[in-house]
């Protein structure tokens, strides 16, 4: 397929452009129909919600609030009424506004605070918030705030009003893409190579978002789903394309033709991308275990975007590679390739030195990494799930100021009233029992409608307060049963409390499911019990530390105003499930990429130390580049204007940073050095029964890399070339000679001082190493049936033992 896409690149490009424009046209005609369905089956709040719908089926529109406050006097003064009443009347005449409740009307006294300084009016639209035209919302805001004057402040709150405060759509994505472009340019040094992953990711995310808009008409898709879909889609889309482009460029630098390099890259890294995308989708599908309708829409949006991002990487990317040809390399690389010919792949000096350090000091590295992760995980012990509301918005927003004014004038619980819903007439003692309950500020029973009675209950405390949660429990467990009524506690606050409780109850099953899936996938891929067990433990450590960061910022308020995400509060109930799914999928990507190279070296040498060292040295740079890109993309979602999006962005950015820079490049390799050969242990009976899964097949060598004719290689000698102080010697010449003095193999040590020479068979050989600044040293080595580890120490006073 890669070769077909490469050769028929114009057809592939036209197909993708057609899909984008076709879906875009359809979505512009159909619009969106997002629905935040937080109700849960078999919960008290869900039953209350169903009864409310039966009682008031006509109240389908969104209800927002206009709040005003005077510095002196009363809101009843003629000077205030003469400005507010005309504004409310004008709003009531607007097309799309169903009703405006006026505090100056006959039954509006309850809408004025006791001290007379604050009042509010409720504006009910004919549509839900996301369907109300933006022009209408802006007209309502402008008309209301035009009534302001010195000493009279007017603010507005509600879901529809909040839409006017959202930044321009795509701001977060644009900033994330720009930051990723900088990282890609530094990694590749080529403008065209930099653009490739971005174009591929935008194509995948664009089609995914448009398809999600269309799917919102046939299934319940929450409003936050497209934001989360674009967040994960951009991250994985750019990273997947990065892996493939890196392999393609390496193939060209090694002397392959561009077409063959592209085919080989897709056959190797492309297969790894398919595997990685599949694991992310499996992790996302794990959310279905929670059996929550709200999460079903999130699974649809995010999984669809990931699938389309993978499809773009394996079809659109080879077509773009065909268009660019040799221009995927920088001018300097093309000139060097033309002048000096193909070059071997070399490990980065910094990466090799770090890998050697981890091998020499595994215990301190493990201890330091564990301490860092444990300290970051401490805040997770105080994790509290709940819901964010407009009280968490930034202080400068009109919604936050309206929220604070209502709390000031009518009590903190006014922003999150409870509804005690009775199927039938409410017993006389129920209202009195609720009124006398600790934590209740106000109680008002609405006349029965359609056989349902609703009792409005305003708590003493805010919707996010733990005392409000305790009040809900008292009403459900004590007050309602004592009255003998069949009543249920509903309202937004009760819904989110039930949502958090159900999430907490089902979360262990969800975690067990995704950990088990990850264990099985890695078990089959790497034929080892310890590697998947280590990966599962690392996933749990990364989750705890990243949630610790999340709690410190969003729940404790360490820097929320500084980064522009508003006031602290509980962690959104559904966020742990979504974050754990995404974290599991992304961690699997990095684990597979890192351990697959280690496994390849282990199969070749059966030397765990070398396998871990080489695997880390050769993959850490790409893993770190991919992680930097994801951190940029995820971190940019702080600018989304959505509290849940900001939480997910910062939480995932922290998770990726900790996973890539501490776990995969420090803790995992250090632990594997300590475990030794046990890393690759698998019982014989299990080996025979497990299916074989090739995550990334070995790349076929280019003709320039073909091994020279000669005796077959049955073993190797490998180790380090070091100074007397234990420092690695880079560029030392290491020569293997027969007892008769015939040269059998000759290599140059890498930046970390490592070398490996091929041995034709068991026996005694002469191994010599030399470097310009250190002279040389030679010694006899005896090779048996397996690989031999032999370190060479060079000093400045050595003689040339070979010559």
From TrEMBL:
Keywords tagged on the record: Cell membrane, Membrane, Signal, Transmembrane, Transmembrane helix
Signal peptide from the UniProt entry: 1-30
Top-rank lineage group of the source organism: Bacteria
Transmembrane domains' residue ranges: 174-193, 224-246, 272-292, 298-324, 365-387, 507-526, 533-558, 570-588, 622-640, 646-667
SUPFAM superfamilies in the cross-refs: Carboxypeptidase regulatory domain-like, Multidrug efflux transporter AcrB transmembrane domain
Primary location recorded for the protein, binned into one broad class: membrane
InterPro entries the record matches: CarboxyPept-like_regulatory, MMPL_dom, Mycobact_MmpL
Location of the protein in the cell: Cell membrane
Organism of origin: Streptomyces nigra
Membrane topology annotation: Multi-pass membrane protein
Family: Belongs to the resistance-nodulation-cell division (RND) (TC 2.A.6) family. MmpL subfamily.
Segments forming domain Membrane transport protein MMPL: 39-365, 459-682
Full protein name: MMPL family transporter
